[in-house]
């Protein structure tokens, strides 16, 4: 595996590869990332994984300085997974002196995470666009856990005519349903047990939908009721939205995206679930 630390080294390595699948990450890898790597390996001749904790997607009071990092461990995992190139740039390599361009995606980036974390999706879109331009992959891979991020990036790729296919893979979960996330490492043992309520809340709303409930306020109430017994430390949002626009729904006539953001101590976790009208009652 080639470890490229500069844009020039990445371009040199890329020139020797055939079809490429790109898996952008912020490191501290887990099985969710590795599932994306395996899919990319199956669908392309080579896989490039970026490891970059992107400062422009963190707000001033967020966890940039303490975001978990273990580069040696990550690189060992990627070697074992058969990755061709690991791109591990410093911030100055991605944002050199004088850098001044940011991508604003529009309305889809404003609610939910966009409302709680102003500027977050501009940072995400900008760095992902740069990575796509640098790697020139045929496919780029993301997980469904970050559903709004996927919607934002899909919009960006479409609007900017980027020559890449975006692949969204299912969320990988622990046995109790908690979605895998690098931030799970922040949870102490008690908070880790409580955090399983996120998936239970989503499933409770899904069960109501499958039983015929179509009023969005009732589904939000189902999620809130489950979370009420979890000992959480705050709910940022409970959403029942159109999966394409992320506009909140009053009644579900087609598909819907259930999503939530909940705090356990200083740790903020997100999760989501798609309701498919074809599977409903």
TrEMBL record:
GO terms for molecular function: ligase activity. Beta-alanine binds at residue 57. (R)-pantoate binds at residues 57, 149. It catalyses: (R)-pantoate + beta-alanine + ATP = (R)-pantothenate + AMP + diphosphate + H(+). It is found in: Cytoplasm. Keywords: ATP-binding, Cytoplasm, Ligase, Nucleotide-binding, Pantothenate biosynthesis. Pathway: Cofactor biosynthesis; (R)-pantothenate biosynthesis; (R)-pantothenate from (R)-pantoate and beta-alanine: step 1/1. Transmembrane segments: none annotated. Its EC number is 6.3.2.1. The reaction proceeds by a bi uni uni bi ping pong mechanism. Catalyzes the condensation of pantoate with beta-alanine in an ATP-dependent reaction via a pantoyl-adenylate intermediate. Belongs to the pantothenate synthetase family. Homodimer. This is Pantothenate synthetase. It comes from Endosaccharibacter trunci. The lineage of its organism: Bacteria, Pseudomonadati, Pseudomonadota, Alphaproteobacteria, Acetobacterales.
